[in-house]
Amino acid sequence: MKVEVIMPQMGESIQEGTVVRWLKKVGDKVKRDEPILEISTDKVDAEIPSPAAGVLSEIAVGEGKTVEIKSVLGSIETEAGAAAAAPGPAPAPKDAEPAAPPSKPAPEKVARFTPAALSAPPAPPRPEVGGGEETPRRRSSPLVRRIARERNVDIAEVSGSGIAGRVTKKDILAHLEGGAAEGARPSPAPAPRAPAFAPGERVRVEPLSVMRRKISEHMVASKRISAHVHSFFEVDYSRVDKIRRERRDEFLDRHGVKLTYLPFILHAVVEALKAWPVLNAAVDGENLVYKKDINLGVAVALDWGLIVPVIRNAEEKNLAGLARATADLAERARTKKLLPDEVQGGTFTITNPGVFGSLFGTPIINQPQLAILGVGTIEKRLKVIDETIAIHTMGYLAIGFDHRIIDGAVADQFMAHVKKTLETFDPGLI
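The chain above was modelled as a monomer; its predicted structure follows.
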């Protein structure tokens, strides 16, 4: 009996996926739910499990190919069928064409999801400039349509390179780069780009991973969309450090996670977002959308890229709840067990390069959010207090904000709120 391996739909707005790597080759035995291939989409990277136990009898879509959801990626000959057949192992085809969509729905069970970096949640449905999606050339994702609205681009005029002419982020960004947006003046011919390496130079060339390409696209799009401004505050963590050292053993015994500085920072950010809700908002065309829920994205650095899982309804969690949520999401991000909806819907992002020793940085806003907080390293430094030099636990916080919406005074008032909360932290909150 043959069981098809299907490209699943991992999120409401996801319409296609790319086969990154087959973990098994034709002829290999597989167990039910054993990962057999890796795929990448606009929202997540994922390991796709085998829908049945048996032998991988066919690979229909080769590595590097992009196909629509519910397409057949390959097939499994179940153990009973495999015993009757005797095919020899064959190499996986690299250039196989996408198979036709199956008549039955994709299996509901999809395991071991990993989010791609800095994914934006789908925007509310709105008519796009120049019409809807009635033709294949006008098919696009919510992110592409949002970029088109904000830059006044008619998607019908953009050449699509995706499945069935689907317009991708890469397509619309290339279109904008060429000055095709309405009202834009024609751009002069670009200057020839200097070669990355000279003939005979000792180099090692490898293609960018799907995740790295998507990170690149998101970062470039964010710099084009938002007017980035950054401000920096120095914070005295001495009070937090004292509380943390006094309570860490008890906290670990009671809650099962370590008491680090990060939950204190998350708590302070939540309190500041309540006081300054514009930093928890998003732009939708000519409207400003204030989000009532505070969904904190916390960036997690991995060996293969950057992931931003989301702590939903952070305003409802106490310090212990924030600590548990952070530890849980980070662990499941590293073990590829996050679900697609756990990397969507963030309203404010926190990134912590300080764990690697960085004093501070200028992080790029995670679209469609309006602000991002960068946490610098926390260390003991000399500080002057009332004309006395003392050793205090200090660190820098950097706020990156969209100056189209947020004025510098508002951003600094937000940061002053975060700073005060940390420097006067109430031990009773633990």
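DSSP finds eight helices and 20 strands in the chain.
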